[in-house]
Amino acid sequence: MASTAIPVEREHYLNTDYGIRSWLFTTDHKRIALLYLVTITVFFFIGGFFALLIRLELLTPAGDLVLADTYNKLFTMHGQVMIFFFLIPSIPAVLGNFLVPMMVGAKDLAFPRINLLSWYLLVAAGIVMLHTIITGGVDSGWTFYTPFSTAFSNTKVIEAGLAIFIAGFSSILTGLNFVVTIHRMRAPGLTWSRLPLFIWAHYATSIIQLLGTPVLAITLLLVVFERAFHLGIFDPTRGGDPLLFQHLFWFYSHPAVYIMILPAMGVVAEIIPCFSRKRIFGYSAVAMSSIAIAVFGFLVWAHHMFVAGISLYSAMIFSILSYLVAVPSAIKVFNWTATMYKGSIHFDTPMLYAMGFIGLFTMGGLTGLFLAALGIDVHVTDTYFVIAHFHYIMVGGAVMGYLGGLHFWWPKISGRLYPEWLGKFAALTVFLGFNLTFFPQFILGYLGMPRRYWEYPPEFQVLNVLSTAGSTILAVGYVLPMIYFLWSMRYGKIADANPWGAAGLEWKTASPPPTDNFREIPEVSWEAYNYDEIPAPAEVPVGR
Amino acid sequence: MFDNFPLWPVPASSGAGNVDALFIFLVLLAGFMCLAIFTLIVVFAVKFRYRRGHRAEQIEGSVPLEVTWSAVPLAIFMVIFVWGAVIFFRERTPPREADAVYVVAKQWMWKLEHEQGQKEINELRVPVGRDIKLIMTSQDVIHSFYVPAFRIKQDVLPGRYTTAWFHATRPGVYHLFCAEYCGTEHSGMIGQVVVLEPAQYEAWLAGGSTFGSLAANGESLFRQLGCPTCHRSDIQGRGPNLVGIFGKPVQLEDGRTVMADENYIRESILSPNAKIVSGFKPIMPTFQGLVDEDQVTALIAYIKSLSRSPEGAAGPAKPAPGT
Ligand SMILES: [Cu+2]
Predict the structure, then answer these.
(1) Does the structural domain B214-304 have CATH classification 3.40.50.2000?
(2) Which residues on B lie below 8 Å from A443 (Cβ)?
(3) Domain residue ranges in chain B
(4) pLDDT digit string, tens, across residues B171-196
(5) Neighbouring residues of A360: CB distance < 8 A, sequence distance ≥ 6
(6) What is the pLDDT of residue A111?
(7) What is the set of domains in chain A, with CATH numbers?
């Protein structure tokens, strides 16, 4: 519980220095994590605002709220902002940045300055993106399909492409930093098999970032070249091949889905054992499934292209490979669930998010089986079925994981507790709002409503109204945490070093941690999740 | 079903039932799996909730369980894969005798042309109970031909042909959507497929047609463009005899063999030097820019027709036309 033993004036990473320069030139991974937190929160709300406008437009079948061109820009920029400026950086750059060094018992990441550089790159990219948005926007779809993007769109494709190009370097550098840190800076005794699964997940994610992002960068550069200098790369009237673009684009953008979901899986693998007071079930299966996902994730890209004009047999190969990559995800779900078995379960806010994550991710994953089935994909690809499916993975999965992680580590980050009842209320609101928003879209998709439609036939209206209603509830669920987190920074109860009684090195140092994390580098002689050795916080769970 | 709140798309093609069957199977499977996971979570959550003095029991994991819950899903996945692939295989292999309809997509309209010469815009009339093969290309960006009631969708690309086919089973009017985002009026690029009783369809065919058939249009174009100077119906021409080539393998100069399908003919006309027929010189001029997509379509229909009636000549068979 909140302890009075902590001296009020203890020095920690937040109060060592206050000036703006001490933030902008910091090399402390924890401060950089907070810089990221602020940055991506801004983008989250921009992207969310676009989403709300999209849902409002779709309230009625006629295109009556915004112009067609505006609508096309809205869904394009919603996708670009949410994916490249929120989801991809989200857990790695905020929670990963904060926690990876602490979890491995290091004083900082391997390259603190490069870490700061990656934040600056994201900010630079963000400024270019904002400039694109403000000066007219872009309507290529986040997928930049050619030849529309290179030869037909009249909007700021080049600028948006460059923004994402720059953001990619931020992502590559973060991945590089994590890989080196995890390899070289583990505390004595912290063998690979003792690493928290959060670290395994980030390791797998970093590999994808390192190997995949350069391909996206090259692809976008080719788009820019074709558009600016009229080279014939993807445009068939100049001798190019539009399918080549799709292959290159999805070679990155399918693994990118795992960049977004793997870290969330890592978060859940921390939360569930803690609130079940149990060692994780099947540690090595969960760890290895992360690596398997990272590897197999690179072999399934063309399942986005079953009706795009690829050959019959290549479609079959990509279909079967897509089923293979589903296995490690299934393994994870089973192991998380099994972890709760014979536990002693506490229902604090992070656990609610983790349980919500399992449910929504399961639904997202299972509907992925539909899409990988060739015969079904033909009917539902490019419809709202796909939209629902990937929002279940990326919002139901990744965002739930992110929020769960924020709530779990907030006491560590800020040294304060948020009001527990509000946390629970928000978690429930998010869960309900999410399902109401996206479940009807599965039905819409099977009925045949195509995605990216500004107007639609009237028989689809009822389901669209439900979806829009859900989105307003979801919005409330997202605004609440922002308010009470801010509130808690000043008025929240003081948190002690380990308010949840969690395992993991990050809980062995004070909250908030000192600038160099540990007074002395810990020596690890125990397995991860040794919950048999850690008592639950006092007798009463925190916050009640 | 309710008109304003449908929950299931009407099945109106011979393939729709197959897709629906697999879909229903998957809904049941996914429903069962969700239910199982959710029940477990709820049961564990209630049964093993925190109680004073009660402690968790530490369990490491279990290799037999890991193997089981990897192998069983994998086996089920393979069943789904095969089932889906079988449906897809059928969707992607049009019957040989299907009636062709040529589709040209452009921002933001569908142009459809029947072999008999009827042209339609954003509306496709087809008879019930016949196999219809769509041969599609785009004049600008990528579009996608999507008829939910038939459960078919195929992207339509500029610079090449893609095909799709269906066999309508139920007369009615169905949505035709463009499913690949194509710019401003993407959501306006819609139309309808009107499935008619055969008699109604025949009447419609007989009624409207003031144009010649597609192949006949192609033939006159063939002459206008001077193709017969090189392509004659004997072996004397500077170019290969085109009679009967369609649907047969062609031996190329570089040793490869290609199938003479729509894409190949199209390429032969627009970029003739891409593939050189064995024994000929690359002297055929490109017709890129001289013919539009509709005309290419007509030329192809004509060359195809040469394979049906061996008598049809591909050159100045009768009176020598304007050479
Ligand atoms: Cu279109």
Answers:
(1) no
(2) 7
(3) 1-38+70-209, 214-304
(4) 999 999 999 999 999 999 999 999 99
(5) A392, A396, A397, A400, A431, A434, A435
(6) 95
(7) 30-508 (1.20.210.10)
